[in-house]
Amino acid sequence: MDLFSTGLIEITDDEFALISKLIYDKVGINLTDKKKSLVKGRLNKLVKDLNFKTFKEYYNFVVNDLTGQSLINLVDKISTNHSYFFREKDHFDYLKDYILKEIVEKQKLLNSNQIKIWCAGCASGEEAYTIAMIINEFFGLDMPKWDVKILATDISITTLKAATEGIYIKDKVVGIPENLKTKYFKNIDSEHIQVSDSLKKMILFKRLNLMNEDFPFKGKFNMIFCRNVMIYFDKETKDKLVTRFYRYIENDGYLFIGHSESLGRETLFFKYIKPALYKRMYI
Questions:
Q1: Which of 21, 34, 64, 237: disulfide with 233, CB 3.0–4.6 Å?
Q2: Beta bridge partners of 277
Q3: Strands (DSSP E) found in the chain
């Protein structure tokens, strides 16, 4: 049978084991057996386009590619990048009503005007732009007095490109209040809308693998958002990442995670504040 003319290329248990281990070792994503059909579906076109007849051939190609580009393409296909503006809105309400006020008072005591935020696993940028809107609205006319830096990172080059462009179909922005939509977006055509330059200037989008032992950051962050990312990690990988987060958050800084995630209230590094929100503890 001609595999290129009919149906999908099948993936064996051994082939899935090889690919899932490679993904786990490189980026920490834990692909359980339930994800076998997902892997087959997402990689089939890529495998066919490269003229391979089996997933084993494709796997060998990836691990022997010294440039690393094939691995990047593989991770790009496997990564789940689902996000939307004002996702888990209570986080942003708490940011606006409590955290920013607390940070402003603290920074004034330190005679500092800098606020640093990291969005880890930023997908196509909706979270980072939401934070930028919240901060702009909070400071209002005082915004120029503050040096706000938002770093947004992801493993996927494709989604980072989309985030940097800041162009979204209009269905993606229905959750944004009309006044903010008018203020921070411009129409591109009948179906697309683009983030304003004022928000773009606040954010630096960079590719970063969260499995790196160290991150190339200068200084620490007042808060880190890593929401709905660790659900793809096993406990060992998650615990190691949380330990690294601890090293890069200011004392009394905040860590946001997804509402379907938990650090466990017994964690030594962070104090539980409310569902999916933790505060860095002194140790």
A1: 237
A2: 256, 274
A3: 114-120, 147-154, 167-169, 185-187, 192-195, 203-207, 221-226, 249-257, 270-274, 277-280
Q: How confident is the model over 57-67, as pLDDT tens digits?
A: 999 999 999 99
| Domain positions in the chain | 13-78, 89-280
CATH architecture of the domain covering 13-78: Orthogonal Bundle (1.10)
The confidence score (pLDDT) of residue 4 equals: 43
Q: Which tokens hold the place of 251?
A: 């004392």
Q: Which one is predicted more confidently, 15 or 81?
A: 15
Own/partner long-range contacts of 79-84 (Cβ < 8 Å, ≥24 apart): 79/27, 79/29, 79/154, 79/155, 79/156, 79/159, 80/232, 81/123, 81/124, 81/154, 81/156, 81/158, 81/159, 82/123, 82/228, 83/122, 83/123, 83/124, 83/125, 83/126, 83/127, 84/126, 84/172, 84/175
Residue 227 has pLDDT above 50, yes or no: yes
Sheet holding 167-169, edge to edge: 167-169, 192-195, 185-187
In the three-class reduction of DSSP (H, G, I as helix; E, B as strand; rest coil), residue 255 is classed as strand
C-alpha 262/C-alpha 254 separation (Å) is 14
Q: What is the pLDDT of residue 195?
A: 97
Domain 89-280: which topology? Rossmann fold (3.40.50)
**pTM, to two decimals:** 0.89
pLDDT category at 78 given cuts 50, 70, 90 is confident
**Helix-helix angle 69-78:36-49, to 10 degrees:** 140
